[in-house]
Design goal:
Helix content is 21%, strand content 23%. By secondary structure, it is α+β, with helices and mostly antiparallel strands. Strands 1-2-3-7-6-4-5 form a 7-stranded antiparallel β-sheet, covered by helices on one side. Helix 1 packs antiparallel against helix 2. The radius of gyration is 16 Å and the shape is globular. The model has no long low-confidence stretch (mean pLDDT 77).
């Protein structure tokens, strides 16, 4: 069972580098980092993402791309949500790796229904099936995807399948 850790300030990670001995197999990365909504907290989320992704055995270009996605997502959520806290999520599995930032708090009772948000800022209900996350079922060139729950929580993130070609 996990333990709660309390910090007085936000973490700052500078000049982090990894050696082959500290590399984590990319398919075994799961991270949830929550922070209070404070000035600079979006930078802390980006720093944590950069460190976790650089420690994973990912190609350097993919780690940079996902780190940048986390940075942009953190800034977006910080600017578009008034939630008192928000979270960075990094999850990998046999299909690929997903990086997202959300203001949704995990609560008992299952996963939320994430709905795609169109360019016209409307929720897209078409083809939604319970238990299927729309973030993990798109092609890699889609970039960042915005989702909302029916009760208004937001999430911005991207998914990179393991067979993602370099530079996309």
């Amino acid at each position: 069972m996990g333990r709660t850790v309390s910090m007085r300030g936000l973490p700052r990670i500078e000049d982090h580098s990894t050696t082959p001995a500290t590399r984590i197999p990319a398919q075994h990365v799961t991270l949830s980092f929550e922070t209070l909504r404070l000035p600079g907290s979006q930078a802390a989320l980006a720093d944590v993402a950069t460190t976790a992704l650089s420690a994973a055995a990912l190609p350097a270009w993919l780690a940079r791309k996902l780190s940048e996605a986390a940075r942009v997502s953190a800034q977006f959520i910080y600017g578009h949500s008034h939630a008192p806290r928000y979270r960075l999520l990094i999850v990998s599995d046999g299909n690929g790796i997903t990086v997202a930032v959300t203001d949704y708090e995990d609560l008992p009772g299952g996963r939320p229904a994430w709905l795609d948000v169109t360019r016209a800022n409307t929720l897209q209900h078409d083809g939604i099936q319970p238990g299927i996350d729309p973030l993990t079922r798109h092609t890699p060139d889609d970039g960042l995807r915005l989702h909302r729950t029916p009760d208004g929580h937001i999430r911005l993130g991207c998914h990179a399948p393991w067979n993602t070609p370099a530079g996309t």
